[in-house]
Amino acid sequence: MTTYTICVFTENTIGILNKITILFTRRRINIESLTVSETERKGVSRFTIVIHHDSREAVEKLVRQIRKVVEVLAVFGYLCDEIVYNEIALFKIATPLGSKALDIEIINKVHKAWVVYWHLDYVAIQKTGTEEEIFQFFDYIKPHGILEFVRSGRVAVSKSPHSLVDYLPEAEWEYYL
Amino acid sequence: MELKEKQLVTRQAEPLADLSHQPEILNGSHALIRSLIAEGVETIFGYPGGAIMPVYDAIYDYQDQINHILVRHEQGAGHAAEGYARLSGKVGVCLVTSGPGATNLVTAVADAIIDSTPLVCVIGQVAKHLLGTDAFQETDVIGVTMPITKWNYQITSADEVPEIMAKAFYIAKSGRPGPVLIDITKNAQQELMSRPFSYTYCEKLVSYHPRLSPKADQVEKAAKLINEAKRPFLMFGHGVQLAGAEKELLELVEKTGIPCASTLLGLSSVPVDHPLYAGWLGMHGNYGTNILTNQCDVLIGVGLRFDDRVTGDASRYAKQAKIIHIEIDPAEIDKVVKAEAPVVGDAKQALQMLLPLVKPNDHSVWRNEFRKYDAMEDEQITQPELAPTTEKIKMAEVVRMLSDKTKGEAVIVADVGQHQMVAARYYQFKRSNSFITSGGLGTMGYALPAAFGAKVGDPSREVVAIIGDGCFQMTIQELGTIAQSGLPVKAIILNNNYLGMVRQWQQLFFEKRYSFVELQNPDFITIAKGFGIAGHTCSQRESLSESLDQLLQSDKPYLLEVLVEKEENVFPMVPSGACVSDIRLC
Fold it and tell me: Mind listing the pLDDT tens digit for each residue in B223-264?
């Protein structure tokens, strides 16, 4: 199984998420992670979808089917070495009285993670990195007792020197400042 | 005054000019009908109901400008609109209510997407404030139809109507055509627009750019392959008729001497008696065309999608050949077969660009190989089917006699099953755009409403539906629509008292275990008479000719039931999952 990251630019309309994901469902492709948000251009959304698949050909066909959706502006499929990618994870760690103290130095310097919220009974730690780095940190922090753990989907930019938005159709886009 | 001028700003000012008596501020329903008129829509197939009533109230005012045809079931509206679109080349329009009205239409929408038929389906929906409350006749139609529409959209305010309708028509008819579904909430139908109605045609969209003109380098590569080919074979599909590329196709094969064959939906694009026409392809296609697909060195596909009924086992399909795939939909390239030379674009434009680049050729030795297989097929199948010794009439005789009597120029609308394959095999098409059938979805019950829609789309043409006894009972109620219209739609039921194709498969592949395929049929002629349609039954070979004359000479709708051989099989046949060159003659 190879991991593919599919970037989709769409118009930001009701139901577009459904119109995209329904194509994966029909082909029995599971979505490992999905991140959608509006871009710097008003009314344009960017999807980052991660899937595992053993056939590059099938992924290429899927990409062409996504392109067919009327609201879709552009689609790009990448292998992991073609992109810079990251996720963000939040860990809620129990800190009851008498528990082993957190080593903030290791957390900060080795794992590049930060405590972003303090509570009497727990702290919330934010860790940014690849899936692998996040799970390394997970293993490190686990003995402290993880109350809650959540990962965002992957976000990615291509390693190509071009901007993906250069490939968007020409239009009078409005920008957020 | 200024407002009035703005209101009339439209490219086609004529249809709106005499509407100046209409209120300047329209409600959503009036805006909808005015949008349809502006798009040049002449006919709507529909069925009223609660959530679409304001639109029906508006139609009442426009009856002199737009013809609404009341069907008997929403599926009938959908198939009629499909038949209309296929024959007229225009967008078919349906109008139905929410909930069951919409779900009844779903089969036709699914049929239209897979056969690339342009439809705009307007569907009533509960008021915006009731959405998601399980209101009476509320169904999430947008959700239901997402995978089977080219585009769908829910209108929730009257102001959206003109812009969305313009977009709907543009998307439905441009590029690879397909169905567009517009769900309009009742409040949007009732409320007044906040500005005067004006209609601007949609000619482009930021996110949707169908490529019509192919890239020159793609065409050059294709031309090079064609010029170097020793055994080239061209196959064409529905895309040729959709693009109106019949003339260019003929010019190409005549210049290059390349034999050509048709898919089911491509039939009639090239006259069957053309010397370069090799026949049709696929599961029940001709013997030579299927076998030689696996012997050609260059395969040129024009406006087709290499459906599994054409390719059989795709892993053993034309592996020896370099494939040129001329196709408007980029998603079809490499979907089933890998193309050495893809040409993305409209078939007409692609062929026009290709024509000057290809060298004149003859290929007569290669072409004669088809004739060798034709002779075998003719001797073993065609001749015995056309001159049978059976007591009962065979389907092939009926179709061929109909073909002779109509000089191959009628529009044949075939339903789905054995009779469909027989119609495709034995009707001698001489004129393009003459075969309408449900190819991709294989929708039983398609033919009767589609034939009606086709007749509405072009009343000047003789339209004959060929229907099986099973199919006929799926949309039999549309006899009422036909009777009410009075249009001379002709229907032939080839009655074998079986679901023939399923029975054939059970015989061949399930050890003759006939599981629920025999029908106890009603008296079709009495039923037709009940609807006010004349008809008769023909059971004897001697009276077949006279029966067909009676059918064709009637200036009213007419139903002819022909009692045919009960257990006949359609051959040749590529068994399901087999490779095309494994085609069987018996």
Answer: 999 999 999 999 999 999 999 999 999 999 999 999 999 999
Cβ of residue B315 closer than 8 Å to a chain A Cβ: no
The answer to whether residues B466 and B445 touch, using CB atoms and an 8 Å cutoff, is no
The C-alpha of B352 sits at a distance from chain A's nearest C-alpha, in angstroms, of 26
Structure tokens at B408: 């191959």
Q: Cβ contact (<8 Å) for A18 and B206?
A: no
- pLDDT one-digit tens code per residue, B118-158: 999 999 999 999 999 999 999 999 999 999 999 999 999 99
**How many domains does chain A fold into?**
2
The answer to whether the pTM exceeds 0.80 is yes
Residue B39 corresponds to which tokens in the numbers above?
Answer: 């798009």
Query: What domain range includes position A137?
Result: 86-154
Based on the domain organization, do B234 and B352 belong to the same domain?
A: yes
Catalytic residues of B: 74, 136-137, 186, 501
Dist. CA B181–CA B152, nearest whole Å: 5
Q: B273 and B176 share a domain? A: no
The amino acid at residue A76 is: F
Structure ipTM? 0.93
Strand-pair category, B277-280 with B260-262: parallel
- CB atoms < 10 A from the CB of B260, how many? 26
* A142: in domain: yes
Beta carbons of A70 and B207 less than 8 Å apart: yes
Cα separation, B228 vs A174, whole angstroms:
51
The reply to whether A62 and A49 lie within a common domain is: yes
What is the torsion angle, in degrees rounded to the nearest 10, for the CA atoms of residue B247, residue B251, residue B252 and residue B255? 170
